Every structure is written in C-alpha cells, then in structure tokens.
Amino acid sequence: MAALRAGTCALPWAGRFMASNRFSWKLASCKTALPATTIRPRRFATAASEPTPGKPYYITTPIFYVNAAPHVGHLYTMVIADVLKRWRVLIGETDAQLLTGTDEHGMKIQQAALAEGMEAQALCDRNYKKFEDLAKAAGIDYDYFIRTTEPAHKDAVQYFWEMLQHRGFIYTAKHEGWYSVSDETFYPAAQVHKSLDPTTGHTRTVSMETGKEVEWSSETNYHFRLSAFQEPLLDLYKTGFITPTAYAHNIVKSVSEGLQDLSISRPAERLTWGIPVPGDDTQTIYVWVDALVNYLTKAGYPFAPGQGARLGWPADVHVVGKDIVRFHCVYWPALLMALDLPLPRNVLVHGHWTINREKMSKSTGNVVNPFFALDRFGVDTMRFFLILQGELAGDANYDNAYIIRDYDKTLRNGLGNLASRAIGCAKGEVPTYIANGAEGKLPSPTSADTDYETQLRELPSKVASHMNSLNPRAALQEIRAIIELGNKYFHNTSPWENPTARQRSIYNIAETIRMTGILLHPFMPTKSKEILDMFQVNPQRRSFASAEYGSDPTYGESPKRRHLFPRLPFKDNE
Ligand code: MSP
Questions:
Q1: For the chain, which residues make up each domain, given as ranges?
Q2: Domain 400-547: homologous superfamily in CATH
Q3: Rg of the chain over CA atoms, in angstroms?
Q4: How confident is the model at residue 50 (pLDDT cuts 50, 70, 90)?
Q5: Is the CB of 276 inside a 6 Å radius of any atom of ligand 1?
Q6: Does this model's pTM top 0.85?
Q7: What's the CA gap between 35 and 85, in Å, rounded?
Q8: pLDDT tens for each residue of 328-386
Q9: Atom 19 of ligand 1, residue of closest alpha carbon
C-alpha cells in the first residue's frame, strides 16, 4: 500500500488551515501510525443538551441506498425528520435545516449496476431521482438533497480520512471476517450462523441479526482505532444521546463487552465503486465512513476554524431506523471524537414497518410502493397514519385497512365532523361567540366546560413537551385525544338544544379546531392550512405561540361548512 504523500490534501484551503493548526503537518503513513496506547481520546462536551443558540437547528434523514426503489419504510424515516423540522419552524426557528439524500457508493450499488448491465454512475443517476421525487411527493421540506457521488462530498470524505490518518487513528492490518454486501458490514464469527435457504435447499451462512447472507473475506485493509473509544462512548450514552432509551441499553451492553477496531477500506480490486483512499488508489474507502460524512459535508465541512456552528454543525438530530443504530451510535461518534469534532446531540431511532409481521424490505420483496400509497390516500393522510401508528421503540404492521380506520375515526368523523357540526349549530353566530369568548364575556362555565377548557389549555404544552423530547407520535396522540374528547364534550353539552350553553360550547369547539389546526401543521401541512383557512385564522397567527387557548379574538368571521375530510376513495382493503 502506498503511503499517503506528505503535504497532500483533498482541499486546497484546508491545506492552509492545516498548516496553521496545532498539529504539525507531517503525515504518518498508515503503517507508521501511533500505537494505540498513545492515543488518548478527549472527554467531550455533553450531548443531548439544549440546542445551541444562534446555530441553525439541523436535522438529517439517513441517506438511502440507490440499488432499488423507495418503499414505505423510507417514506416513514423522511416524514419523521420533516415533522421535526416543521415543528422547529412552528416554534419560531425559521432557519431550521433538513438534509436528506442518497448513498450511492459501495459493493451493494456496484453489484446492482453489474446485475443491470449498467455503469454504476448511470444507475445512481437514474435511481437517486426516485428518492428525490418521493421527498417532493410527500411534502418533505428539505433544504438540501445530497448525493454521495458529488465532488464536494468526495473532498470532504478524503479530508476527513486524512485528518484521521494524521492523528494516528488509522493503521493497516490483515482483516478476516464475514462480510454482508446487503448490510454493507462485517460480522464477527459469533454473529453468523448456517441457515437453510428454503427457496434453493442450500445452506448459507447468514448474519444472526439481519438474516442476510455473508461471505468470507480475507484481505489487508485500513483500520480505524475504534477500540480506543470505549470509555468516551459509554460516557456519551449517559447523556441521553440515543432516543428512545430502549436502544441505548443494547448499545451500552455491546460496547461494554469490548470494541474491535473497524475495517474502513476494501481493496480496489474488489470494490471499485467508491472514494479512493487519499494517496492509495489500491484501496477504496468503506461505504459507511463515506456515507456518515455526508452529514458533515452539507454543514460545510471541512470547517474554517470556528465556522462549524454557523453552518449548522453539530447536527441536532439524526433520524435513523433501528437497523443502523450501531453505525450512528458507535462508529459515527467515535470517528468524530477522533477529530475532536462536536458530536451530534441526538440520534432518534425508529422501528420498522412490517407486512404480516415481517420487515418491509426491498431484498425480501414485501414492499409497499410509497407513490401509490400517497396517491391513493393522500399525502396528509399518509403522514398522519405513519406518525400515529409507526413506533419508535417497536415495529408496526402496515395494512391499508388501518389507514382507512384511522382516517375515518379521527379525521373524517372526528375533526371534520366536529368542525362542520359546530358551524351548523351556531347558526351564523360563530364570530360573536369567538369575540365574547376571547373577551371573557361568555356565560359562566359548567363543570363540563371547565374540565374541557383545562384540557385545551394544557394541550400546547403537552404537544411541545413530546416534540421537544423527539416523540412526534406521542404529540400526535395528544391531538387525537383532544379531538375525541372534543366530540364527547360537544355531544354532552347538547348545544343545539340549549342556547345558553351553546355559546361556550361552540367557542370551545372553535378553539379546538383552531388550536389543533395550528398544532397539526408539522404532521399535515396541507390540511392544517385548509382547516385554518376555513376558520379564517390570520396567517400571522398560526405559529405555536398562537396555539394558546383564548389567545386569538380575530378569527372565524364567516366559517363555511365543508367536508374537510371527504370519504376516501376505497373502503376495502384492496
Ligand atoms: N444507506 C444507509 C444509511 C446511511 S446513513 C449515513 C441505509 N440505507 S437504506 O436505504 O437501506 O435505509 C434507509 C433508511 O430506511 C434506514 O433508516 C432504514 O432503517 C429505513 N428503513 C428501511 N426499511 C424500513 C422499514 N421496513 N421500516 C422503517 N424504516 C425502514 O441504511
């Protein structure tokens, strides 16, 4: 393996920065890297703290492999991240940033291109679009769509590598192990077993965790001194880095049991489709190192001194599925610690969508086409359903019948019905009731009114607390609960029979619609607008601050009865 040429650097200005850095710019080649014992990873500032004032709130999705088309599981990941971004904007952080994109290198893509008889680049150019189209179709308010084949990303990855090498965290060694192309990872011998493939009758060696086939590989490649980071990683987990905590337990257990150094390159004769190791074209950088750096690329890495925060780094939340926790919660923070880069504040992990209790996956073939689902049920209905029923700590089973059930119950018969009944029952008096309500001139409350008003008053802070602790599902459940409660309240107070009770009851229902209309924005941006437009809520009064009970005397001039949530086109489970 060729030693890295001293003084070479992927980025011209970065070379100048390095020259003035506290490290002398004398590169150790991989073979002469410092022995592990001399490396002392620094302690680091605690993660998972409050967002840094003045820094854009920065959220990421995982970047998607382009070897196959997107499915509903990918849509779910995107929607969670988008809901978090829109929430930050709703609470006033107008410069919140959302990054999504595609993971285009590695053996998996190389093999997919080979199978299709295409150049890898051509395959990427064709397939990345499907993910970008999906983000657009689902109303994902992303700020940048990254592709790992972009030149700027290549520069960032090579610079990142050079810095690791410069600091002595990379060495070469012979590596033997079981590699899964599908999972793009090595597994230790204790984590694979033999398994009979029922379709062929052949016995294969597969990963115990994912069931994916592995192949034996024996090669010399570059290693990262991951083992040096056991203690700092265990410290990191104490700060609430991983959400929900259920996932942290497994990671803490496995890191406590010991960390092996990580193989971070593959011989170029086997893996050509990737970023070459700087100064050594015989080796290609491991696709996960390449992929993880995407989060830095778009924050402007390599940062000029002191500029990382201005551009967004560190990320506030990386949203990831449970199958990629180890990459984000072990490898990624260790790589960043090696370079003394600030750590992401939080990794938000979600469970998987299953079909008949089996993970929805392109390799299994049991996937739901997200474009068809969005088309059939509507963007907001899908967003609502995925967040309401998708689980963070567990898996959720996907079924069209559930989408229809939730839509009918909470939206069509719940919120939509409530809005239309209240308007009908008020007989044109909605504006009077709203004005009286905001000025405290309504008839005295009954105990039913008081109980319901207490719930309404508490709603925004409950939603905020769940959103701020990265639990959009719990936040949406609060909104669903108030819609159900509002229907019961409306029914119990019988405003159509009692002209005195009517005023307060209808005011409270108008507030329910207005407040839920605002709070639903991150989840159902289009419907939220329709709801607020229907009640003529001033566009300047649609932020989280305006979601407070009784805070807006200006809306509801002449609300029109209309079907906010029309019948879905299909009633059966086709
Ligand atoms: N390319 C890597 C991520 C690199 S991030 C630096 C990758 N890509 S992926 O296309 O396989 O998966 C992207 C995301 O989709 C992951 O978070 C994964 O967990 C998620 N999902 C894939 N199948 C899923 C379900 N069935 N359900 C929910 N999410 C699913 O991993």
A1: 400-547
A2: Isoleucyl-tRNA Synthetase; Domain 1 (1.10.730.10)
A3: 27
A4: low
A5: no
A6: yes
A7: 43
A8: 999 999 999 999 999 999 999 999 999 988 899 887 889 999 999 999 999 999 999 99
A9: 321
